[in-house]
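Async update (no meeting this week)

Hi team, since we skipped the sync, here's where things stand on the single-chain job. The sequence we agreed to prioritize is pasted below, unchanged from the tracker. I ran it this morning and attached the output directly underneath so nobody has to dig for it. Comments welcome in thread, and please keep replies under the output.
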Amino acid sequence: MNTELFIAKRLVKERSFQGLIAQRMSKIATISIAISTAVMVLAISIVVGFKKEIREKVTGFSAPILITKLSQNSSLEIPPLRKDWVPIGDLQKIPNVQSIHPYTIKAGIVKTNEEIQGVILKGVDSTFNWSFFSSNLVEGRLPNYKSSSASREVLISRINAARLKLKVGDKVKTYFVQHPFRMRSFDIVGIYDSKLQEFDSKFIISDLRHTQKLNQWEDNQYAGFEILIDDFGKLTQTSQAVVDAAGYKIYPDGSRLKIENIKESMSNIFDWLSLQDTNALVVLTLMLFVAAINMITGILILLLDRVRMIGILKALGMSLGSLRYVFIYLSSAIVLKGLLWGNIVGLSLSLLQKYTGLVGLEESTYYLSSVPISIDIAGILLLNVATFLLLALFMLIPLLIINKISPSEIIRYE
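Output:
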């Protein structure tokens, strides 16, 4: 039988073995660890959820990886890219590449009887992945571009619909400043709202065949290709693989392909998101510090409460190592109990927020209407293991007091 574990179990189960102060400090230590764990679980869930939501919104407008024609021109009037210049077959074989879609863009001006608004027509074809706009559709339906002729159906944002006083079923006249000057009338079939005003105020989704004609491009010429991926965590490796497959070719007219991932093209947004990791780290550090202080205090009180027991066990021949194990087991029970309740509370609050959106946010600042939650099971398990190990190290600090306890002195004054 493990004598140390047996004694620790008796101390845990039998309240009569502990003084009133020791019982209270055990509860305080357990509650402190539980609160700290709950806060850490919430912090991880919020940070992961926030980064995931913003990333999905940004990649909904601009794919994780873009292939365009290399040009010094920084305006929206970019040179066309021929489809046969892009080795689509080779790119589709790259691990983590989900799909590849062509797109076109054209700057224009929407004018109604009362308002005027500059926009960007993003042209897509029948292969376009509509999952992002489907999840953010608030009125109407998605456009259908599967017909043999160019469709006049478009998808506009709620913010533009409000500014221009348009609704589903209305026609929107768009003017294009070029030679010759042109105007196109489109039918609004749907309204989306991604909460990203920077993008919502710009983009109208249209049939790319219209933008090809407006740009005077051939049927096999596009602004570029969007590459969707399965795992965003492997973006850098996948982007480099795309560069290796297509980025170094020089075409007869001296052109090359420009391959850029979204972390490079929208570095300001992703740098901002990376700051959230720092905020989470500060919260985790503070919570661990608070739990550690209460844990050390609790163990010291337990040791002082059981000084007579320690002296007797020493007198009976129990080694210092065995005595330490008694209190390590006892402290571990307190930590595990605190972790258990902390996880229950943290996950319960996370699920409550996830399914109710109880805590709201200012959309203009955070791009979201409520605090986002994404429960990362692997991250939470890692957090629990790391917390237990760190607190286990802090446990050893007060246990050094056992060395100072003299059996003869203790028994003499008892």
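Quick observations from my side:
The chain has a mean pLDDT of 82.
Residues 63-265 form one domain.
Reply here if anything looks off.
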